[in-house]
Amino acid sequence: xxxxxxMPKLSDTMTDGVVAxxxxxxxxxxxxxxxxADIETDKATMEFESFQNGVLLHIGVQENKSVPVxxxxxxLGSEGEDISLLLAEEAKKLxxxxxxxxxxxxxxxxxxxxxxxxxxALVVKSNTQETVNTISSGxxxxxxxxxxxxxxxxxxxxNTLKGTGDGGRVIKRDVDNYQSNGVVADFVGVExxxxxxxxxxxxxxxxxxxxxxxxxxxxYLTMEINMxxxxxxxxxxxxxxxxxxxFNDIVIKAVASSLRKHPKINxxxxxxxxxxxxxxxxxxxxxxxxxxxxxxxxxxxxKTLTQIAAEVKNYSTKAKDKKLQPSDWEGNTFTISNLGxxxxxxxxxxxxxxxxxxxxxxxxxxxxxxxxxxxxxxNTMKVTLSCDHRAVDGxxxxxxxQTLKYNLENPILLLGAYxx
Length: 420
Hints:
Distance between the termini: 60 Å
Radius of gyration: 31 Å
Number of helices: 10
Strand order of the largest sheet: 14-23-22-21-17-20
Mean pLDDT: 83
Strand content: 25-35%
Largest sheet: 6 strands, mixed
Low-confidence stretches: 106-130
CATH superfamily of the largest domain: Chloramphenicol acetyltransferase-like domain
CATH topology of the largest domain: Chloramphenicol Acetyltransferase
CATH architecture of the largest domain: 2-Layer Sandwich
Shape: flat
């Protein structure tokens, strides 16, 4: 008997899916556990395996097309089986759902109509084909529709035009003869644009960060940190470490160590309670073509610098290849976003739910600093902590940044009992 295969929900935030590639075509035999299609979710492209045996009788979603979760992905059954009745039933279900949705707006029609402020609207006199425009002086400016269109196309402000028509009406020749500072506005350009469909990942980024920004009251704390000792320490570490350590790897380690001393920063706002996490899972923002992914370095405070470096490098490769799995990006308790490698000196980041805080890391910059009463060259880095004021107060955030600053300016503390 034929069975419907539906668009699966492959992540907790997925509402729609896109079939990136079909690995089978209609008429092919499909075995349970065999690869059926690649499905693009809001965060990655994932392989979808069949859960049953059969022949592929129907493909419900073409490649690169988006459909909601639970829509018909395919139908599997016996060779030559008639599935017309099954398709008709599914079409009726879809029609019933659309009808319910369609009836909802009708309720809105019962509400009072919005009043229109006639005074602020443009008044068009059809008998004379003139448009009356209100100018800043309070006087009414008469302008013909053709003149108005020409002026708009040329980027000429209407209130700068002087009319030579009847009663001071602005007509076509006034626009043609218009001069601004002695220069005729006759430049002609070509307008063009490209519409690109919003990817599932970008939709989720927009929704989640919109919810965070407009529901969580953000405040920001910025601190400048001297990086001279870190630069020296990194040079020495990279001469003996099994793999190269980046400044970002060191920041992750320093943040994790600081969170251990300030557990209230490592928290989540849960409406009726605040969750203080005993474990430290650092989300690391990684840029890909479609947006940002945030894989998680788990138990970061207990890992060595080389372990952190290897994990972040692996995540970066998987993110760019769209191979990250849900287990890779779930469970963060704190997030770091670093744009220093792009030359950004300072910025603020939007909190990544469910975290209470996110740290924005800028680039290292050489500046004059005072040491022992002398002005000498130094290297500094600015970090900005975005905090959810519902869970974290200013003093808590400031104390955390002080500890972070101390750890980065004294890198020997980051090694502790752990090897490189």
